Amino acid sequence: MAEEGAPGRRGERGEEPPAERGPGAAFHMFVLMEDLLDKLKLLSYEEEALRRHNMRPLSRHYFALPTNPGEQFFMFCTLAAWLISKAGHPFEQPQECDDPNAVISNVLSELRSFGRPVDFPPSKLKTGCGEQVCYVLDCLAEEALKHTGFSWKRPAYPTEEPEEEEITEDDAELTLSRLEEDIAEEESDNEENYIDLNVLKAQTYRSNMNDTAKQEEILQSTTDAAEWNLEVERVLPQLKVTVRTDNKDWRIHVDQMHQHKDGIDSSLKETRGYLDKLHNEISRTLEKINSREKYINNQLEHLVQEYRSAQALLSEAKEKYQEGSGGVTERIRVLSEITEALEKVKQETEEKGSSMTDGAPLVKIKQALTKLRQETIQMDIQIGVMEHTLLQSKLKEKSNMTRDMHATVIPEATVLPS
What we know:
The protein has a two-stranded parallel ribbon with strand order 1-2. Mean pLDDT is 77; it is low at 1-19, 164-176, 190-195 and 213-218. Helices cover 69% and strands 1% of the residues. Helix 1 packs parallel to helix 5 (131-147) and helix 6 (165-188) crosses helix 7. It is elongated. With 418 residues, the protein is an all-alpha fold.
């Protein structure tokens, strides 16, 4: 795209941390974060990385200031994994349930594989913000840009075209008309009149343009010097020139910086003595505290030893208690099982005992026997009746037979005598 060796390209500031920590080192991470955000925009991180995970775009100082450690750490892991994949190395997208130490170790190993130095502990990345986080992401973004073939262009400055004279004349006439209106308003309000410097320049330019249109001729003054001085004194208040200061001018900022520096130096001279005195008092107090601490430690050494031995005995007693409590729990479980079996046996015994001592079956047997006796009696009666009936029938039949026999004998007897 452009020549790769462009001097002063952006991004080189974030590759190596400064060797010496100057007064502006605390703001280095903000500059680094702004460079990182520009590189991420060049890589289209909003379309490729954030929309896939439904995340919001980063602010200018997202990783420079601590806001939400959990969210910032997850955003750091997501962007690091995406940049490593963008740089040509396959890297699995981390999840929220993954081990943070393992994710940080994998990211740093990939960073070392790119040849980037890592001279800080991995725990600095757990907070999800800070100079180390910005440094890691900036290095990975630089490698991703190299892999995609991107290179920084030389700056192209626009050419300024000169303004035309007609526009200047129009502006001058416009400024002169505004000047006349301002002077009329100020005279009506009886306030102090002043002429703006730009208006004077415009008026001078217009007068020069009018003079060039006339023929040049030698002028000879006929005015009295005393009258001239009086006229000068009369119009002198109206010729007061005021220069309006522009707050955006760099000279104003430089003057303010010098004023603030002088104020800081003067305040530092006054407060240095108090700070030194406070430092000395704090140092003496710390020395006293250290000496008292050593004295107390020496005096309570035997008590500390006794406490440690008591702690050891307590730990042994706790271990024995845990072992004993485990056996007691097992025995309680066995006891509960035996108790349940005993309850079942008791219930069965009670049921059998209640059935044995209950008189209802005996009463039923007696009632059945009584009923049997009554039925036997009834049967005996019926048998007697039947026997009597049978006997009667036999006797009747016998009498009938006897009668029949007599009936046959009588006629024969009657026949014989004749």
